[in-house]
Amino acid sequence: MDKDILKTAAELRHRLHRCAELSGQEKQTKAMLIDFLRTHTSLELHDMGAWFYAIYRAPLNAQTESAPTRRIAFRADFDALPIEDDPALPYASENCGVAHKCGHDGHSAALCALAAEIDRHGCRSDILFLFQHAEETGCGAPVCQKMITDEKPDIIFGWHNMPGFPAGSVAVHDGTAAFASRGLVLSFFGKSSHASQPENGHNPARAISKLIIDIPELTAREDHRGIVMATVVCVRIGEEAFGTNAGFGQLMLTIRAEFESELDALDFEICARVRAYARQDGITNVEVQYRDSFPETRNTPDAVAAVRKARLECGLPEARWDEPFRSSEDFGCYTKLTNGALFYIGCGTRHAKLHTREYDFNDEIIEPAVDMMFRLAQDA
């Protein structure tokens, strides 16, 4: 990787870190990325509102005068998290309570560096550079699928930094790379009454308790093809009024599964039991809402093979793990439409964990990330 491009990419990463913005609010971030590409490349830019992409068009074959037959896409996300930053960082976030604690500033800076490398050195395939908003909420990729349907890349790659793996090591998983998940908000509209006469009301506490007790049965490993989980994130029943029998309750769950079909089955069973338990206590109005829905991210065999080949050619160490990451990634929206793979690059065995105040992207892995993507651009 050209050292001048590496330097400007690290500087860009720090500027992105300073202006960290939440999902759906990334106006300054997007403008900064577009400005970098206009300054450092001659790529064709497509501004799609909340997101954008750039295209490198490979020259015609000199001998056959034919257009390139391959189109290869790379994706980076650029939203931040509602987490306070470490004020000791020289490039600490200037937006109170918002910071890049998942490394999306590094992902986008590395993709900008790849764009500069491809623009400078060329490529025999058309290359698409997708800059995506709102990954953290799962809202970005469904919108950005438009690039896949419009531009029709043959294959798409994405990567994520991963604390706990040796810095610069590369990991890729066959099949599921990240779990499907969704948030369930279950609201019970019963009937309040005086606390001395609970029989005159319809309290949702028992229905909510029954469902929570059922979770181990619903997610039993021996009954499923892959890992299935349900995590209680919030329970609300009534209020601090000791003379009142609660009439309203709310249960929030995050459900996740290795296979999307099993997530759908769990979702269906939870909703069926919730309504049945509620009816037993005279509650007929139960509302189900969804938040932060993510598909499974399923890597395709050809893309996995390309990542492993690129790692060997780049001379980078391999990191291995036995099962998919339980966290979710909306990258799976793209592999529903074309071949692709999400891989991981280690940022250090003792590096602070993702989504923590102490975390900061490791600038030292920009170079191996760009090297990996550049090799994939040439060979995939």
Summarize this structure briefly.
The chain has 380 residues and is α+β, with helices and mostly antiparallel strands.
Protein model, in words:
The chain is of the alpha+beta class. The protein folds into two domains: 3-178 and 296-379, Zn peptidases (Aminopeptidase, 3-Layer(aba) Sandwich), CATH 3.40.630; 180-293, Alpha-Beta Plaits (2-Layer Sandwich), CATH 3.30.70.360. The protein is 33% helix and 24% strand. It is built from nine helices and 15 strands. The chain has a seven-stranded mixed β-sheet, sandwiched between helices. A four-stranded antiparallel β-sheet has the order 10-12-8-13, covered by helices on one side. Helix 5 packs antiparallel against helix 6 (260-280) and helix 7 (301-314) packs across helix 9 (366-379). The longest helix is centred in the last third of the chain and has 21 residues, at 260-280. The chain starts with a helix and ends with a helix.
